[in-house]
Design goal:
heterotrimer, A mainly alpha, B alpha/beta, C mainly alpha, C: mainly alpha, Arp2/3 complex 21 kDa subunit ARPC3, 2 domains, 2 strands, 72% helix, 1% strand
Chain lengths: 243, 242, 301
């Protein structure tokens, strides 16, 4: 599954991996804003950004080809939109769409490939995001794989259950079987949540999650944040000056 | 000697009225290892959920259950849950934090320890169960046996006096079962093991309590109970032939 | 629809990010006050359920298959505030882990799908869910959750200057997937009731809508409408309606700031102006978030 690969990458070791998540979030936001607001010489800026991102990926000791391909998951959607834009006479917008969405996806991928998700969520919390929401996201992520595995088993079972009828009846039967499978998955998830809650209560849960290790922002993190944020800005300035 | 657990005439009915426990009497002394045996639905799990107040604790005070001399009331729940450590059947539902260390430290943190203290206690518990290397790992990357040991560490970190394990060998392969049995034998706490695995029960416990339709129908040496109810799936016939 | 980065114009995404803040903060606070942290596992696990549910295929005719999107189902089982929190978490995880949907456009995506979509999915059920129109209400909720969030997304894309042809193609897709979502939602609700009737809520028609929720909702909509109108790069079509142009003109006067037109006047070079404006806008949004969060925390203590 996709996020399993991401898990492996995010637990590797490099200066970027060790950096405070807040520094990396700041760099990402700056880069995305600079990219989003670029309207002149977009192609040149896109190329330069691609170089920057690939460089960062190499510095983070990530498998470059795999990362580049992984970000391409956004391309089918964007290229379809780009094609329609071209047919409507606005080819430039179409190309910009495709380039910007791909580079944005690549940048986000870099963030989550160098930061374990729970740590990223903690970074977001210390930057002011609502804790309740982030805890929900944390639990969601924890049980994503487990529940997906359950769903895979049920999907196969549902398929085979509906396979006996023929034609229209077959479609109805498969529809009902799929709905039944979803309902069972729902019930199981609900039951699982109940048992998790009992497990929490059994270990003294008082109604509030405590933090174990707070994040520490070091001077190296500040350095990384500043350099990383200035890079796309400097690139853009340079392109503007030269053109 | 004060018993660790004393249950007198425990009744419990589900919301729809079905009687799950009918007047259960039970006593656990320090250092004992007891297996709870019985058919599916005989009330074993319902019973152990009463021991730390997950069922029957809180608004409806349970005067029929006493843990270390404390009756099970809402005021005592916190104390009782420190003394009775419950290891669930599905470790995935017990390891709900993002990393092993955070999960094992969950209990100590809730007990009021500082983060530094909680980490130390957690590390010690992980070392006891042989999972010290797994601190930073995510739970779903662990094997079933490793998850069980981390779950046990999470309970040990609360410093309980009684360990309760619900079907601990589910999902475990034979080597996993063997190492869990060895680990349990070396732990000083009193143990209650709910299990269908008679071999496992025999290797960990000396005493067995047999549940039938919500009531305790036998309580004695494990060998005798197993033989009386033919609870060993593969040896029962050969025994009767002798 | 999950809008990726790079599709929306700066005015649109920045405004909607700002508008999403009060909505998300109030929803999170609402859910927490009602449930406290004890409900976190349920909401998290049900979020994982929605992800996993998307692996189960429903035959949609003509050899295609569809899957559940989930907003309406969550609303009728967990209630709308909890459903909003779950959907927000889902959208965030989808954007971060699966790069499905952009980061700068989390505001629009959350507003479209987690706020507006969820409430559009819940409203029919709340109004007619306890009578003989129950099945229709559930179906309508499922369809509405997809349709309304799609319309919002398309509107945002149009205001960002995307050509009508692209929007037309998308509309067709949404018109098909809306009734499918309705059908799937209804089928799953029926199957759920067969397992345990308590899973699905009984809507109480007599209850007053929470005043603060309503206020936050109206504030978000107003912010979004004003800001998007004001910042639209496609003013001609809108100005054709005299009423709206009059409103826009008045609003322009009212909110004229150094950042009007999303260009910081004191920086030379258009892109740096826009970028500076964008970043300053985000910084302001961030500070406002912090303030709201602090105020809300004080009130609930």
């Amino acid at each position: 599954m996709h996020h399993v690969v991401l898990e492996r990458w995010s637990r590797r070791s490099s200066a970027l991996h060790r950096a405070d998540p807040r520094a990396k979030i700041a760099i990402l936001v700056v880069f995305l804003v600079v990219l989003a607001t670029a309207h002149r010489d977009v192609a040149l800026f896109a190329a330069g950004s691609a170089v920057l991102l690939c460089g960062a990926s190499v510095w983070a000791r990530l498998p470059l080809a795999a990362v580049v391909m992984r970000a391409a998951v956004v391309l089918p959607f964007s290229l379809a939109f780009a094609a329609v834009c071209w047919m409507a006479g606005d080819a430039q917008r179409g190309l910009q769409l495709a380039a910007k969405s791909y580079l944005s996806a690549l940048a986000v991928l870099l963030l989550v490939s160098t930061t374990a998700l729970p740590r990223l969520l903690r970074g977001l919390e210390s930057l002011g995001a609502p804790r309740f929401l982030l805890m929900v996201a944390q639990f969601l992520y924890r049980y994503l794989f487990v529940t997906s595995e359950e769903a895979q088993h049920m999907a196969k079972a549902a398929q085979s259950r509906g396979a006996t009828a023929a034609g229209m009846a077959k479609r109805q039967a498969r529809f009902r079987a799929a709905a039944g499978a979803l309902a069972v998955l729902f019930a199981r998830s609900y039951g699982r949540a109940g048992e998790i809650h009992r497990a929490m209560a059994a270990r003294g849960f008082q109604g509030h999650f405590e933090t174990l290790t707070p994040l520490r922002f070091r001077s190296i993190d500040a350095l990384i944040a500043v350099t990383g944020s200035l890079a796309p800005v400097a690139l853009r300035l340079a392109i503007e000056r030269l053109s | 000697m004060q018993p660790l657990i004393e249950v007198c005439g425990l009744h419990y009915a589900y919301d729809d009225g079905t009687l799950a426990l009918r007047g259960v009497n039970f006593r656990l002394d320090p250092g004992e290892s007891v297996a709870l045996l019985g058919a599916n639905g005989s009330g074993k799990t319902t019973f152990v959920l009463h021991l730390n107040g997950l069922l029957g604790g809180g608004d409806d005070p349970q005067p029929h259950v006493a843990v270390c001399g404390l009756p099970l009331t809402r005021a005592n729940l916190g104390l009782v849950r420190r003394k009775v450590g419950l290891v669930f059947q599905d470790s995935d539902n017990q390891l709900f934090m993002p990393t092993v260390l955070e999960d094992v430290a969950f209990g100590p943190l809730n007990l009021g320890k500082s983060p530094a203290e909680a980490i130390e206690v957690a590390r010690h518990a992980l070392a006891t169960t042989g999972m010290a290397e797994a601190e930073e790992r995510a739970p779903y990357h662990l094997s079933a046996g490793e998850k069980k040991r981390v779950a046990l560490a999470g309970i040990l970190a609360m410093d309980p006096e009684i360990l309760v394990l619900d079907e601990p060998t589910t999902f475990l392969d034979p080597p996993g079962q063997r190492s869990l049995a060895e680990l349990l034998r070396n732990l000083p706490q009193a143990k209650i093991v709910v299990t269908h695995d008679t071999a496992f029960a025999r290797s960990v416990c000396t005493r067995a309590v047999f549940f039938q339709r919500g009531a305790v129908v036998a309580d004695g040496r494990i060998e005798e109970v197993v033989e009386r109810f033919r609870w060993d799936p593969y040896l029962a016939n050969s025994r009767s032939e002798r | 629809m999950h809008i990726p980065d790079g599709y929306l114009s700066t005015g649109v995404w920045a405004t909607l990010d700002a508008a999403a803040v009060p909505a998300v903060v109030v929803m999170a606070r609402q859910a927490q006050r009602r449930f406290d942290d004890a409900r976190v596992p349920l909401l998290g696990v049900m979020g994982a359920f929605v992800f996993a549910a998307q692996m189960i295929n429903f035959p949609a005719g003509l050899g295609t298959s569809a899957h559940l999107l989930g907003g309406a189902l969550l609303a009728v089982t967990l209630g709308a505030p909890a459903a909003t929190v779950v959907m927000t978490a889902i959208i965030a995880i989808q954007a971060l882990v699966f790069q499905d949907g952009g980061i700068l456009v989390l505001g629009p995506n959350i507003l479209n799908m987690a706020v507006i979509g969820v409430w559009a999915g819940y409203l029919p059920f709340r109004l007619a869910g306890s009578g003989r129109w129950r099945n229709l209400a559930i179906f309508a909720g499922g369809a509405a959750s997809v349709l309304v969030s799609a319309i919002c997304a398309l509107a945002e894309l149009k205001l960002s200057g995307l050509p009508d042809k692209a929007l037309g193609v998308s509309s067709v897709v949404f018109l098909i997937s809306a009734p499918i979502e309705g059908a799937i939602t209804l089928a799953v609700v029926k199957a759920l009731e067969a397992i345990r009737p308590g899973f699905v809520r009984q809507p109480e028609p007599g209850r007053r809508l929470n005043a603060s929720l309503l206020a936050a909702g109206m504030a978000s909509i107003f912010l979004a409408a004003v800001g998007v109108l004001y910042s639209s790069p496609a003013p001609d079509g809108i100005e054709q309606t005299g009423l709206i142009s009059g409103l826009a003109a008045r609003v322009k006067v009212l909110v004229s700031t150094p950042f009007s037109g999303y260009e910081a006047a004191f920086l030379s070079g258009t892109w740096s102006r826009k970028a500076a404006a964008g970043l300053a806008g985000l910084a302001i949004i961030y500070l406002v978030c912090l303030m709201i969060g602090r105020l809300a925390r004080k009130r609930s203590v």
